[in-house]
């Protein structure tokens, strides 16, 4: 059996950059959980960026879909990308 590791997100530098661009060129900070949806998009939860980001399976583009990047507790009932946690 031959296994290959592929980088799908992150530059190796800690940060919060890259929304709207290729996930491999984005900076992430302490990603700790990942899940795929039914369309193979990957969702990544980042601890110190206080957000959830999505990598589009078709394009490889990364976008913040929940959280503002600022810690807090607000936004119940509002748009996910404007909430804080």
UniProtKB/TrEMBL annotation:
Taxonomic placement: unclassified sequences, metagenomes, ecological metagenomes
Protein name: SMP-30/Gluconolactonase/LRE-like region domain-containing protein
Alphabetical list of Gene3D superfamilies matching this protein: TolB, C-terminal domain (2.120.10.30)
InterPro entries named among the record's database cross-references: 6-blade_b-propeller_TolB-like (IPR011042)
SUPFAM superfamilies for this protein: NHL repeat
């Amino acid at each position: 059996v031959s296994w290959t590791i592929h980088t799908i997100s992150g530059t190796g530098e800690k940060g919060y950059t890259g929304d709207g661009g290729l996930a491999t060129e984005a900076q992430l900070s302490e990603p700790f959980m990942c899940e795929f949806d039914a369309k193979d998009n990957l969702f990544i939860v980042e601890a110190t960026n206080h957000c959830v980001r999505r990598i589009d399976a078709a394009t490889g583009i990364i976008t913040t879909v929940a959280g503002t990047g600022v810690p807090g507790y607000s936004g119940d009932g509002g748009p996910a990308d404007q909430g804080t946690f």
